[in-house]
Amino acid sequence: xxxxxxNPYERAQFFLVGxxxxxxxxxxxxxxxxxxGSYELAQGAQVIDASADGGxxxxxxxxxxxxxxxxxxxxxxxxxxxxxxxxxVSSLPAVxxxxxxxVxxxxxxxxRxxxxxxVxxxxxxxVxxxxxxPVALKTGQTVEVHSGNQALWVYQRANRTFTxxxxxxxxxxxxxxxxxxxxxxxxxAPAANTADVVIYPSADDAAQSTNGLTLxxxxxxxxxxxxxxxxxxxxxxxxxxTEYLR
Length: 246
Known about the structure:
By secondary structure, the protein is mostly beta strands. Among the domains are: 2-74, Jelly Rolls; 161-245, Jelly Rolls. 2% of the residues lie in helices and 33% in strands. The chain contains one helix and 16 strands. It has one helix at 203-208, and strands at 2-6, 11-15, 20-25, 30-33, 38-41, 46-48, 56-61, 67-74, 161-168, 174-176, 182-188, 197-200, 213-215, 220-223, 229-232, 238-245. The strands form four sheets. A four-stranded antiparallel β-sheet has the order 1-8-3-6, with no helix packed on it. It starts with a strand and ends with a strand.
């Protein structure tokens, strides 16, 4: 192949491997000279000269306008592709997009993700899902649920199990550790206790005797909290607490 910008009547030379010479691009007629003779070829024209194979070919751009001259050469007869001609592709290599190319798809076949590919939507694309596999949410994630004009029923998941323990009070506050799996805790003060039990949500509150709930002997209360609790009262008094766990 030869490709070069030529001025009017400028001559150029290239070594031909093949027998046909096809003028693919030219602003005017190109005079082609081989050892057999000269030919004047316009864009889209070709000459087949078997004797020119392996020899020098000279090109001269006629006319009064400079421009790109591109010559295609080879063996046999060159058949240029027609505009709009369909091409059948039997297979393609793997194609990677760097994220900068816009891609518009009218339809997609079934797509399977192995869990490693991130999938992001900018919120403008409508996405319809007929079914979803089980989805695990991390702590702190929120999911908005919309039902349109239909009624949406939401049921609270039942507790998985419970544990019950007895805490014996002392001169320092008894701590019930935080438990993220706990949905509710019930605290009961036996009737044999000699003083009220005071329940605080933090060590600072217990130290300052503020923000406490009082639990009298023989009574119980229920709290929907999973954070730690600090229990104070008379030494040797007890509190029976039951934790309900998700």
